[in-house]
Every structure is written in structure tokens, then in C-alpha cells.
Amino acid sequence: MVEIKFYERGNESGAMKSDRTNPEVQPRVTILDVAKAAGVSKSSVSRFLDERIPKSDSETARRVRQIAMDMGYVRDVSASSLRRGKTGMVGVIVPRLTDTVMAMLYEALAHAAARAGQFTIVATTEDEPGADRRAADILLRRGVDGLILSTAREGDNFTDELVDRGVPFVLALRTDGKCRSSVGDDCLGGYLATRHLLDLGHRQIGLIAGPTYASSATGRVEGYRKALAEAGLEARSEWIKGSTFGIESGGEAARQLMSLAERPTAIFAVNDNTAIGALSALTRMGLSVPNDVSLVGYNDIPVVSHLPIPLTSVKIPFEQIATAAFDLLSAETVSPRERIRIAMPTLIPRGSTKPR
């Protein structure tokens, strides 16, 4: 199922429309209203208020700008973009907005869009194979100028199809390794999380891995393996359990890990949701975090610092990723070296980890 929601500058589209049935909501002041109040032509007002051209300092221009300000006129960026052959809309495709990580990404993209004088439309896919194609078609029919996708899947050729169609797009959080992408350094983040546990004296470190089709998950697994190898330890297959990035799958993975004859003393979950699920499962099993098991999550969503046991997590700079995504989308040409923008993660230690 594909769900389409409309946002402008970070607000739902309902806020975009004048509600003439509500006396507290005033109709939008148009350029024609300013022209009538100033006694000049509509084209003159447009010229005097256009911030892209040198500002006229004539008495008429100053008077028009003052009248516009007094009337509360706000330039309609989308309308002016449409006149130039663009709508000012950017389509964003995410697996789901109930996932806090994707909601944080979308909010950051909405902020970046507002700074660029644009607005965003979001479509959700539930991470179903092929759903991003349907979402893209719907968004493109609505006239978006380009797409930002966080749904890239390993082995899928959808990005090739977009290239062949000449659709401007950027990948965010996930990458296919070749197209324009704005991502976090997932390998480094996985390394930092595992290195933290190693530095605390843990040598039996379990991993709750994400889906293998997501580059973000596989990158964090790579970082986990790298840190273990650097410490002269083996990444034991029985200590690596997959997940769907969901809370329930994180809980199931934790139960499997702690049911082993030789169970880990620490767990790195490649997503905060799976870490939250693991924390719940461990508590129900009568195990204490961090006294029995240390636990590290990933993404540092806001709730994890407010849990009864604050979660150690790897923080991702979503605003930086969003800004880079818009820069890449608007750039006419990008060198191979700059095609994939990588933001640096930071480990945030909290109460869910302690020395062994």
C-alpha cells in the first residue's frame, strides 16, 4: 500500500489552504491585492518584491514594499516556480512515518526544503518491494521536481530506471553505492558501537542486524565485524541475529541470543527500535541492563534518552543529511568523488552500558 501525505515547509497541507469558514483564518494576501492597494500594476509589484533581482530604491518601490509588509504579503514560492516550469515540490519516499527514524529524516527534509524555498510531499511504502515504483509514479504525476528516496534495496534496479527516465533523484540514509546519495557513515557507526563495548571489557558481543537489503544495516554489520577483527575476535555466526528494524523483531532476536548455551554479555542493535525491543525482552527474561547485559542502539531517536534505562546509542546528524540531499538534488553536475555525501556519526554513552 502506498500512502501519500502533503506537507509544505514541514506542515500538513491543510495549513496551506485558506479556511474561509473559520473567522480566525484570514485569506492569503495576493500580489494583486498589493497592486490594488498601492495603485500600481501587478507586474510592477512582482518586480519590486522579487528578491532575486537588484532591489529598486525608488520612492514607488519603497512604498510598495511597505504596503506589502503592512498587509502581511508572503511571496508564493510554488506559484513563481510553476511559472518558471517548476512546481517547487520535492517528493520524498520513506518506508513508514511511524518509524521515528524516518519521521526525523522527513522533518529534517521539510526544514531543508523550506530553507530552499520549496516544499515536500511524502509517500510511504511499508518497505514493500516495488512499492517505491508506484509511489514515485504518483508523485511524478503530481508534478514534483525531483525525488528523495530512503527505500533503496540491495539488488533492485529501480535507480537505473529513474536514471533512464531522466528523473532527478537522491538517495537518503540508504545508498546503492553509485547514485547521488546522502547517508551516515554506517560502517564507522557500527565500529564505534562495537568498539565502545570492547573498551568496556566485553568480548562476547551479540549483534541484532537489520535487513540485508538495506545498505544502512549492512554497513553497521561491517563496522561490527571490523571492530571485532581489530580486537582479534571472531564474529561468531550464532551471535548475529537478523531483524526487520522493528521493536518486535528486536525482542525476538534478543531472546534468541540469550537462549544460547554461551550467551553474549553485550548486544549491539543496529537500530534503536530493535534495541528498545531487546530491552523489553531482556527485562521480561529477568535480566538486568546493564548489570547482566550491556546494550547499544543506533540513530539516537529522542525517546531513548528518556527510557527508565537511558540507552547508549549512535547519533546520526539528520539535518546535515537532509541539507546535503537537497544540495545534491539541485546540483546540475556532481563529480564522482562528491556523488555520495557521508555524515559522521557520534557515540552517545548512557546508562545501558557498563564495564564487564
Structure in a nutshell:
The protein has helices at residues 31-38, 42-49, 59-71, 77-83, 100-115, 131-141, 158-165, 186-199, 215-230, 247-258, 272-284, 318-330; strands spanning 3-8, 11-12, 89-94, 119-124, 146-149, 169-172, 181-184, 205-208, 240-241, 266-269, 294-299, 312-315, 340-343, 346-348. By secondary structure, it is of the alpha/beta class.
Question: What would you say this structure looks like, in words?
Answer:
With 356 residues, the protein is α/β, with parallel strands linked by helices. It folds into three domains: 3-10 and 86-184 and 319-343, Rossmann fold (3-Layer(aba) Sandwich), CATH 3.40.50.2300; 15-82, lambda repressor-like DNA-binding domains (434 Repressor (Amino-terminal Domain), Orthogonal Bundle); 186-316, 3-Layer(aba) Sandwich (Rossmann fold). It is built from twelve helices and 14 strands. Strands 2-1-4-3-5-6-7-13 form an eight-stranded mixed β-sheet, with helices on both faces. Strands 9-8-10-11-12-14 form a six-stranded mixed β-sheet, with helices on both faces. Helix 7 links the parallel strand 5 and strand 6 (169-172). Helix 1 (31-38) crosses helix 2. The longest helix has 16 residues, at 100-115. The chain is elongated and about 85 Å long. The two termini are 46 Å apart. Residues 29-84 form the HTH lacI-type domain. It comes from Rhizobium aquaticum. This is LacI family transcriptional regulator. Keywords: DNA-binding, Transcription, Transcription regulation.
